[in-house]
From TrEMBL:
Residues 46-103 form the RNA polymerase alpha subunit C-terminal domain. InterPro entries: RNAP_asu_C (IPR011260). It comes from Candidatus Sungiibacteriota bacterium. SUPFAM superfamilies: C-terminal domain of RNA polymerase alpha subunit (SSF47789). It comes from the Bacteria. GO terms for molecular function: DNA binding; DNA-directed RNA polymerase activity. GO terms for biological process: DNA-templated transcription. This is RNA polymerase alpha subunit C-terminal domain-containing protein.
């Protein structure tokens, strides 16, 4: 976009410039939204790749995860609360601890992840 600044003293030209700036800002909104979405997806993938041993869990909860071969947050969030409670050596306190820790990252148990994210984790 080229703007001739020599004629901006005319109120009509100022209105035209203002309208052009508003249109440009509106056009950039789509890019801002896309960038926000990409950043959110990237952040989610980083959390999901995190090894569970970095969650600072109690030894009992960590060992329970290890016993059922859950090594990453990505594998963990695919499990449901009920499913974990039915797992041997998983009690309510362990599941509560996991839910609290996941909540600090904006995650929950029983998350449904789209195919694109699942492919990133594979």
């Amino acid at each position: 976009m080229i703007i001739n600044l020599r004629t901006l003293s005319d109120p009509t030209h100022l209105q035209i410039l203002r309208a052009a700036a508003e249109k440009l800002d509106g056009a950039l909104d789509a890019f801002r939204e896309e960038i926000r979405h990409v950043v959110e997806q990237w952040r989610l993938i980083q959390y999901l790749r995190l090894p569970v041993d970095e969650l600072e869990l109690s030894v009992r909860t960590y060992n329970s995860l290890k016993n059922v071969n859950i090594a990453t947050v990505g594998k963990l969030v695919l499990k449901t609360r009920v499913g974990l409670l039915k797992t041997k050596k998983f009690g309510r306190k362990a599941v509560d601890e996991l839910e609290a820790r996941l909540a600090t990252m904006g995650l929950t148990l029983g998350m449904e992840l789209n195919e694109k994210i699942l492919a990133e984790l594979a």
